[in-house]
Design a protein that fits this description.
heterodimer; A: 465 residues; alpha/beta; Aspartate Aminotransferase, domain 1; Aspartate Aminotransferase, domain 2; three-stranded antiparallel beta sheet; B: 533 residues; seven-stranded mixed beta sheet; two-stranded antiparallel ribbon; 13 strands
Chain lengths: 465, 533
């Protein structure tokens, strides 16, 4: 092999040549090559891997990576109205402070003794989510809201012994794609249409399609297209009349104002906690929650870890541990429910901090403030000639879609123009929701001021004039 | 004045004393118990009065059935109280930065470089929205592209997706790709079996089962290798794939791995290499040389990204060219100096995770790989393996311990030990040794279930620990084993120096008592009457 430059690596204490020699002597080996005696010649990498030259100093590394990152132009440096599953909300400084604590950031799978802190925070996370959702059982987070939705459907199928899920046609395309892939090959995914004027599920179609084969009825509330599904109770009734499970995907931040889905009949509630203290991070802050009532049949279908509270041998001391561990793949491999593994625990810890900071009043304030701003944005955008907000009459939370058909311009063209004005316009829906024509999904949150919204309205006005 | 050998005062019988550790104990209540009505942890931006005046009462738009009746019963705390509570809980957690974290074998608890955390936390990344125009995200796309090139060279495979949310998600993505491949060949229904081994991670079996496959598990032969004869018996026209690790959890490298691959290929199946932990073989051997079709790497193992209490993470999934069309959407493509996300891939399995995975961890892993280079990665492997074999030699000096299979042979990056002899002699079990080790500030793990190796303990020292660190770990275990013989109660009643004491286990498996939330605990244990659920 080619000449290797002698380097003592800061991350590798035993790369000091003398130490290496001493350890080799102690184990009776002449070189590290001896440890690989089982790797046949035919399987060996020939020569040195062809990789970029290393940046050995921290200074050089930082300069290189920061140089690459500098090519990005962020939502913070521009004015962004993108949403669609990943949301620009204010991240309290305390969230970043706690989730960058090395004790949490670098820990992994310690026992309830050496990692008491992790268990307690994640129990508190589930407990605060439980209050928000009015449900007793919440999992340690799974990867993201997509996985939470797909797993919730699989849970419903196991609970009912049936293999069909009826899902609202107006889910985001990513969620629908994930559900379809995850439910192969045994579960049929049957989309149900939505009403053009309200954005709500088509109840007549649901009624016509649901059958004794239906395991689950799944819808998002608020819907991907932004409107609030006001017929939740009716949908749950229809599901229950056929002994199917009602599954609702809910933005946790909307629940300061909106009814927790369990109260209108949901049996499983799921979604993404990214809005609760995670930066957008090019999509890297997603984490999924799944919640149910405290019924054994439901609890036993969770694949995720569930952390419970219990006494210790010292009176008044709380201990924590895994609830019903024997249902997991850690315990029984393929006989477990789906699988469990590393997912998104640190975001659960962060969401705990967020909910503790916000408290009841904070959650009410933020929900109401977002709805108010979004309503203002809808009204103002609808005043631009040629621009329509088709569902303007329906209640919305933070997202809504805007139609540009009458402007003669495509969303792509308008968004390019907005980008030149340092605005990230709403996501283009024209491919995934062709029936909506040239429409874009806009998101307004508490980070937006009236001036931001007015600026957007002016900018779009210029583009479509 | 007479000279004192100050350092030697910390030694007994020529050896350093064991660490007199005690974990922080704040006796912290559950956060709801700290609530003071009216306190606020943070204030949210107020809506401007003129905006509100124009809009009116938005809540009036919401039908009564959709309007929450009472605010959520969250705790009410000042910011001071929230910070203090979670700081205290953080001190009651043993992060890898604090301990000689070699006790979580198979998980590659290596050093997480701080500079990489700082780079990943840059607003130039954290403030990016995943649906931004490609022109505004050239930096992160270039990093994703460059990192893919590095993974291609490390594996010898042709294309990677960085979308799966961790190792198990990558295994599932690979199973989806395997299904798509057979479907395109008209064999999806016929090929309904997936083969794995008992010393591969349980998610290989569990993901295959979730995806509808019948799972066949190979057990080790007398030498600890996956049983080749058992594979010959298992392979058939029903075989969709084999999902296999090498070296397995035992740390034994299977020299016949290419024969395993060939046999499955001859039967028309695909071969997927679980390289969640590839730490001991970087630059030594690759998926390509053994003729694998797919593989995956856990960036939180081999590539140094922090484990974060169990994610967020990335499972990078790699394939040969002929399978590339099935990878999840989107993939990053390069066009001269421009990078773009390609969603137009009609054969793709679709989405396996949100957006683009966890790009912050790609930044960390890229930075790590760039700080090592080809020689550095090889040094990582060699030192990880040197550390492991050094640890093996020292551990085997402890009476009552064995390293089952392949006796006298070298191991790669980890070893699954057995305390069977000690347990027979003393009645003290492996789990109990581990809990006692926590009294010395060390984490210790047994193994996944089932315990094929009796009384197991899996150690993986990685390249990140010094000779002195390894000596300390062995000294603590030797001491605990000595206690097991001479003062077994001390071990069986542990922990003594941790935050909490022996936890009652029965409530966790009893539906009448288990409590996954504080509200459930108040109801079940406190007898509180609650509305609804």
């Amino acid at each position: 092999m080619s000449e290797r430059k002698p380097v003592v690596y800061p991350y590798i204490p035993n790369s000091v040549p003398e130490v290496k020699e001493q350890m080799l002597r102690e184990v009776g080996a002449s070189s590290t090559e001896e440890f690989y005696e089982d790797v046949p010649e035919a399987l060996r990498v020939k020569g040195r891997m062809n990789l970029p030259e290393p940046l050995l100093s921290e200074r050089a590394l930082r300069r290189h990576v920061e140089g690459l990152l500098a090519k990005n132009s962020t939502a913070g440096e521009n004015l962004s109205f993108l949403g669609g599953g990943c949301y620009q909300h204010h991240v309290p400084a305390v969230c970043d402070e706690i989730n960058s604590r090395s004790e949490f950031l670098t820990a992994y799978a310690g026992e309830p003794y050496d990692d008491h802190g992790r268990f307690q925070v994640l129990f508190e996370y589930a407990s605060m989510m439980g209050e928000l959702l009015n449900m007793d059982v919440v999992n340690v987070p799974t990867y993201d809201g997509l996985q939470a939705a797909a797993t919730s459907i699989r849970m419903a199928c196991r609970l009912t012994g049936r293999q069909q899920a009826l899902v609202a046609r107006n889910l985001g395309w990513e969620k629908l794609s994930k559900i379809r892939d995850y439910c192969k090959p045994d579960i049929e995914i049957r989309p149900i249409g939505y009403e053009a004027d309200s954005g709500g599920l088509d109840l007549d179609e649901l009624d016509a399609v649901i059958s004794p084969h239906t395991a689950a009825v799944y819808f998002d509330n608020p819907t991907y297209l932004g409107s609030i599904e006001v017929n939740g109770a009716r949908i749950a009734e229809i599901a229950h009349a056929h002994d199917a499970v009602c599954v609702v995907g809910a933005d946790p931040l909307s629940l300061g104002i909106l009814t927790p889905p369990v109260e209108y009949g949901a049996d499983i509630v799921c979604g993404d906690i990214q809005p609760l203290g995670m930066h957008t991070q090019f999509g890297g802050g997603q984490a999924g929650y799944i919640a149910t009532r405290d019924e054994e049949a439901y609890v036993m279908e969770f694949p995720s870890r569930l952390f419970g509270i219990a006494p210790t041998k010292v009176p008044g001391e709380y201990g924590f541990g895994d609830v019903a561990y024997e249902r997991t793949s850690f315990a029984v491999r393929e006989e477990g429910k789906e699988w469990v593994g590393t997912a998104a625990a640190l975001w659960g810890i962060t969401a705990a901090v967020y909910l503790a900071l916000m408290g009841p009043q904070g959650m009410v304030d933020i929900s109401e403030g977002i709805m108010t701003r979004a309503r203002y944005a809808m009204a103002r955008l609808g005043e631009i000639p040629g621009v329509r907000v088709p569902l303007a009459a329906a209640p919305h939370f933070k997202e809504f879609f805007v139609n540009f058909d009458d402007t003669g311009k495509s969303v792509a063209e308008i968004n390019q123009g907005l980008l030149r004005q340092q605005i990230f316009g709403g996501a283009d829906l024209s491919k995934q929701f062709a029936e909506l024509g040239q429409s874009a999904l806009y998101c307004v949150t508490e980070v937006h001021t009236k001036a931001d919204i007015d600026h957007l309205v002016d900018a779009i006005g210029k583009e479509v004039a | 004045m007479a000279q004192r050998d100050i350092t030697r005062e910390r030694y007994t019988d020529g050896k350093p004393n064991l660490r007199r550790y005690h974990q922080a104990k704040w006796d912290e209540p559950v956060i709801f118990e700290l609530s003071v009505p009216g306190q606020r942890g943070i204030l949210v931006p107020e809506v401007e009065p003129d905006l509100r005046a124009e809009v009116g009462d938005v809540l009036a738009d919401i039908p009564s059935g959709m309007r929450r009746q009472a605010p959520p019963a969250l705790p009410e705390l000042s910011q001071v109280a929230v910070v203090r509570h979670y700081m205290r809980l953080s001190q009651e957690n043993l992060g890898a930065d604090l301990n000689v974290d070699i006790g979580q074998g198979t998980c590659t608890m290596k050093h997480n470089p701080k500079v990489n955390d700082q780079l990943a936390a840059s607003p130039k990344l954290s403030d990016l929205h995943p649906s931004q125009d490609d022109a505004t995200v050239q930096g992160i796309l270039e990093i994703m592209y460059r990192f893919e090139q590095i993974l291609k060279e490390i594996s010898g495979l042709d294309r990677f997706s960085l979308q799966p949310g961790a190792g198990s998600a990558a295994i599932y993505a690979n199973v989806s790709i395997i299904r798509a491949y057979h479907k395109a060949r008209g064999e999806a229904d016929q090929r309904d079996e997936i083969i794995t081994t008992i010393f591969s991670h349980p998610s290989n079996a569990a993901c295959a089962k979730t995806a509808g496959y019948k799972v066949i598990t190979l057990y080790p032969d007398a030498d600890g290798y996956p049983d080749f004869e058992a594979l010959e018996a298992a392979v058939s026209e029903r075989t969709a794939a084999i999902l296999i690790t090498n070296p397995e959890d035992t740390g034994i490298f299977n020299p016949r791995i290419a024969d395993f691959v060939d046999l499955v290929h001859e039967a028309g199946g695909l071969c997927s290499y679980d390289q969640a932990n590839a730490n001991g073989i970087l630059g030594i051997t690759r998926a390509r040389e053994a003729n694998f079709d797919l593989c995956h790497f856990n960036l939180h193992k081999t590539f140094s990204t922090p484990h974060a209490c169990g994610g967020p993470a990335v499972g990078a999934t790699g394939v040969r060219n002929e399978l590339a069309k099935y990878l999840p959407v989107p993939v990053v493509e390069r066009d001269g100096d421009h990078f773009h996300l390609d969603y137009d891939r009609p054969d793709s399995v679709g989405k396996v995770g949100s957006f683009h995975g966890v790009p912050a961890n790609v930044v960390r892993a890229y930075a790590w790989a760039m700080s090592m280079g080809a020689d550095g990665l090889r040094e990582v492997a060699e030192i990880a393996v040197l550390n492991n074999n050094y640890l093996l030699a020292k551990m085997l000096e402890i009476p009552g311990l064995s390293a089952p299979y392949a006796e006298g042979k070298r191991r790669i990056e980890q070893v699954r030990y057995s305390w069977e002899k000690l347990a027979e002699e003393t009645g003290v079990h492996s789990e109990e040794l581990g809990i006692r080790a926590a009294d010395f500030g060390l984490h210790y793990w047994t193994s996944h279930h089932p315990f094929v190796v009796p009384e197991p303990c899996t150690l993986e020292p990685t390249e990140s620990y010094s000779k002195a660190d390894l000596d300390e770990y062995v000294a603590v275990l030797a001491h605990v084993v000595d206690e097991a013989r001479n003062d077994p109660d001390k071990v069986k009643t542990a922990p003594h120096n941790c935050t909490v004491h022996t936890i009652e286990h029965a409530p966790f498996d009893d539906p009448g008592q288990w409590a996954v939330t504080w509200r459930a605990y108040r109801r079940k244990v406190g007898g509180e009457e609650q509305e609804g659920t």
